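Why predict the complex rather than its parts? Because the way molecules touch one another can change local conformation, and only a joint prediction can capture that. The input here totals 665 residues.
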Amino acid sequence: MKKKPTLKRLIELYDEMLSLPHKQEVARELRDEDDLFLLLVYSDMLGIPNPAFYYTLELYPHIVEKFHDWHLRMGMEKSPLDGIRCC
Amino acid sequence: MSGIWLAVVGMLVFFLGYKYYSKFIAEKIYRLDPNYVTPAHRYKDGVDFVPTNKFVLWGHHFTSVAGAAPIVGPAIAVYWGWLPAVLWVLLGTVFAAGVHDFGTLVLSVRNKGQSVGTLASKLIGQKAKVLFLFIILLLVLMVNAVFAWVIAKLFISFPASVVSVFIQIPLAIWIGYSVYKKKGNMLLPSIVALAVMYLAAVVASYVPAMQIDLVKYFGGEGATSFFGLSATSMAFFAWIIVLMVYVYIASTLPVWKLLQPRDYINSHQLIVGLGLLYLGLLFTNPEITAPVTNASADTSWFPLLFITIACGAISGFHGLVSSGTSSKQLNNEADARFVGYLGSVGEGALALVAIIAVVTFFPTAEQFTATYSGFAAASGAGLGVFVQGAGQLAAGLGIPATVASTIVSVIVVSFAATTLDSSVRLMRYIISELGAEYKITPLTKMHVATTTAVVSSAALTLIPQGPRGFGSGGYLLWPLFGTSNQLLAGISLLLISIWLKRQGRNYLPTVIPMVFIMFMTLWAMISQVVTKWAPWAAESDWMLFTFGAIILVFTFWILVTAVAALRKGDQDQIQRSA
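Output of the joint prediction:
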């Protein structure tokens, strides 16, 4: 159903138009932070010693989907790590 | 004739162009398919690839492409009379800019949302990508130099605008922090920021102590200050240095800290500016006093008009926005017509009102002709006349003329500053990319690349000699800026044509504006380089000659490469059909 054009809706639309690039940049910063977190979690698999690896492994089920998105985004069609077979 | 009629005719042409010509292009040439899965859906990642409402995307696209350039070019080009400028803006927007912006958007959507640079290497060859990078590098270098000059000139001519422009910086940083850290909304703080800026403009218009008039500080017009330079030259020099220091800091900060909150405030200013001008036009109903054509011009309008008005008629820069960001956010391929074509119409509307503001400013045709006495005089004075003309239109809404002029100059400076910020940042990226391509490692470092960008831009702004001495000749670069911009547009149209040809479709609607724009650009450039700037010419200028010659070589190079690619495409087709 189409929304009725009200003043409030118009202002929302105007705000959306102008804040589009800003939201994009904030999302990019957050994604970079997530990527860093991913690196910390799986650093052991890359040969960087991580004393908390045993515990971070527990995050595996929560993070595996993000890992899949990450390797696709990095231009790798299949998972680059042997230990993680997301696809 | 009333200026309102010009606006009415212009809007009617834009309307017909959108309603019929863009429909024809969408259905018969680009063949938009509403069922095509756009990159925004195919590669949806919540950051770059985000399906976006078409109205939102149009607003974003329009505010990204509109700036000071569609104001400066037309304000100079009315030197040849208002008719040639208006015709080029209207026909250029309908038949060239609309098709170009719309086409680059579709081309990118059909090629995974890739930018025109990447598409150039795909359609023409790997060499084209590097060549393309060099052309964009030249374009942004011109943009930096020209817009630094524009801002310095406006600061000198309208010292009351300085405080408002500088107040915007801490306000933008505050908004950036409050939104990023506290996840607040930007709308209200940015409106408050705008109100503070305009309040400062009003106060500064009446209180001389708030006007930062560097010419006065250096002893007044005609006085000689340091190093034997005149006060005006020193003022230009000082402002350009201040701007370059600012732009260095602005372009190395994360974009959310300064650039984007500034953009957000400036988008309000674009709406305020357009509203002020069109409403002012309606209320004042001014008469056009400028001549229809200029029979005694010292410089021929043909073909220089077509590079003097770049943005507002056709601009290669739009293709970078269309294929760089908008194509990744297009929700449905059918929306491309609305976003791309109407985006260029918005820019055309801005150029049209800029023309109206200038041609209605003077009380008589004689006064117009006295100010626009020659092409060089027009280039130097055009922007100042626009600000005063726009101020006169805004005064029709009850705003005192001085305040209105200050606010308009704040708006134009803000646009120019945003363009300067973004283009120095872009230049930094390109230098880094070229550094990586040619394995010059130091150039890939952020501060080395930024220093190279800033120093070369500052040098280019300061070298040309204008009538007001050292540093005042930045407007001499305008034809070069127009040329590199039009060249980029021509190449983008060429890419679209190659793509259409390979699809077996009618490519005349893109090839005709391409041939036209390439021919005009080449002709204008050859005549400027050979008869004006060359060492053997009367107005010999080594710097302009060198840059002009480089642009010419690039144009021929890319044309030869593209023709070879087209012929190769033909041979492939013959082989396939055999």
